[in-house]
Design goal:
Number of strands: 11
Number of helices: 3
Radius of gyration: 48 Å
Number of domains: 2
Length: 288
């Protein structure tokens, strides 16, 4: 045991002696190196701590909002003008020259979808005027009450902007009223006992046509479309009406769109009385 103790003491002494034998400059350098090692070790420890904190998972919480957009289709037709338009023929000159009602109806369209617009004449009996009252005895066999609805003529103030490319004769009602008697079919209203059935490609439309290629794009008379707004746009149409009974009252202008006459054939003539028919303006979404 004494030997072991002595050995340890000697070894310790030798180390001490090693330090004491270094020069003062060398001692200083050694201390600086020792300090640098401690500093480097401390920085490494701190760096490791920072890295450990950096890779730690970040806490997250969240909530979601669902946004729903409902684009409802709008197809709106506004009509200005009287609901009842009366033609009173109480003068021979009115029978011969007819009566024209100018600018009576204004049709104004607002739509978010492509559309077509047409007019159709009809009655409760189908395609002839409904007779409400008869004047006189009504016993003349040549006096008839079957007046065709095509006796009514229309005129629109501007052309159809995108019509059927090849109608029978006329694509719209834009032509000026012709001097009576005339059987061209240019202004005679389209007539059907089923007013919600679209006119065929051979019939008139106020705007648009039968197939998907003929239509007016969505828009409104309230905003500028193609440089025009209001009454000058393709979303506003003014309608004139004309009826010419003739003398005798055979309604010589009554005709189909292809020019086929619908006039009464003499010796028949219209029974004096009160007659009514309906004009329906139908705005419909463009379709195939």
């Amino acid at each position: 045991m004494p030997l072991i103790t002595r050995g340890i003491a000697q070894e310790g002494y030798a180390n001490m002696k090693l330090f004491t034998n270094l020069s003062r400059t060398e001692n200083k350098t050694l201390k600086q190196l020792t300090t640098m090692k401690k500093t480097t070790l401390m920085l490494a420890i701190l760096g490791g701590l920072c890295f450990t904190q950096g890779v730690r998972a970040q806490l997250v919480d969240e909530q979601n909002v669902t946004i729903t957009m409902d684009l409802q289709p709008i197809l709106q037709l506004d009509m200005n003008g009287p609901q009842n338009i009366d033609f009173i023929f109480d003068d021979v000159s009115d029978y011969v020259g007819g009566i024209t009602k100018y600018g009576v109806t204004q049709l104004k369209v607002s739509s978010t979808v492509a559309w077509d617009l047409y007019a159709v004449g009809f009655s409760s009996s189908g395609t002839n005027w409904d007779n409400q009252v008869i004047y006189g005895v009504g016993s003349d066999p040549n006096a008839v009450t079957t007046i065709p609805c095509t006796a009514l003529e229309l005129r629109q103030d501007k052309v159809n902007p995108n019509p059927n490319p090849a109608p029978a004769l006329f694509a719209d009602y834009n032509g000026a009223f012709l001097t009576s008697p005339v059987t061209s079919g240019q202004n005679n209203i389209f007539v059907s006992a089923t007013p919600y059935t679209r006119p065929a490609a051979t019939e008139k439309y106020i705007a648009g046509g039968t197939t998907s290629a003929e239509f007016v794009a969505g828009g409104s008379y309230l905003v500028t479309q193609g440089g025009n707004v209001g009454a000058g746009s393709n979303y506003w149409y003014t309608i004139d009406y004309r009826i010419v009974p003739g003398l005798p009252a055979v309604f010589p202008n009554a005709a189909l769109n292809n020019g086929t006459s619908n006039a009464l054939v003499a010796p028949q003539y219209a029974q004096p009385g009160v007659y009514t028919m309906n004009v329906k303006y139908v705005l419909v979404e463009n379709e195939l």
